[in-house]
Amino acid sequence: MNASKMLVTGGTGSLGSRVVDRLQTAGCNVQVLSRSGRLGTVPGDLLTGEGLEKAVEGINTIIHCASSPTNSRQVDVEGTRRLLQAAEQAGVSHIVYVSIVGVDRNPFYPYYGMKLEVEQMIEQASIGWTILRATQFHEFVLTLIQLLDRLPIMLMPKGFLLQPIEASEVANRLVELVLSSAAGRVSDIGGPEIWTAADLARVYFKATGRKRSVVEVPIPGKIAQAFRTGAQLCPDQKYGKVGWEAFLSQLSKENYRERKSISLNLEEIS
């Protein structure tokens, strides 16, 4: 049994829950921060700071997976500031943070700009740190496609390039980093394939046995330009082994139709 104590933020989300499972399997003493205070978790709220000081008492390593694309200023930026202050006071020795590939190349998108701000905040902290940037998850891409699947014609941004990776593979890499010493900015990781957003949708419809027209819509502006020129890609770091088609094949057609959209809350990662 690993004697060091670990705290996972966002530990009930799609990434964080996988990280928790792997750490527990490895025999680690791991706790999950949750504002709900549900059974089996440690109460603490990044939004207000309530409970954070107590939650980090005796903790050696924090795995920071919590994020909120819909409230990123208060949760990601200010929440991380509160978490770091509590961690520094408590003597936490290591924080591991998961970010997104290309946030420095596309800071025009507000969420990415705030993820970059969080990275810089962690880099300036007085405790050891490790930052891993990953491309978008297969699971998140699937959710976005399903959210857009509301009209007779599927509209997708023209030329947007993505390199999705399975969340479980990101969890595997995070655990490796958690069980090592602070390493600073480590190599980015991405999925095995690069797709346009439109082709991701076309493959999705083929996998679900549905005939849908996918129309690419030109999008102006700096954000769209960054996506078209590969700002969110890391073609030389194809860490993931599970491609988009393989990911879809793991799900039955019933699961596609019944799958609920992922709630973008404090305990989810994008």
Automatic annotation (TrEMBL):
This is NAD(P)H-binding protein. PANTHER family: PROTEIN HIGH CHLOROPHYLL FLUORESCENCE PHENOTYPE 244, CHLOROPLASTIC, PTHR47128. Gene3D superfamilies: NAD(P)-binding Rossmann-like Domain. Keywords: Photosynthesis, Photosystem II. Residues 10-138 form the NAD(P)-binding domain. It comes from Trichocoleus desertorum GB2-A4. It comes from the Bacteria. The keyword Cell membrane does not apply.
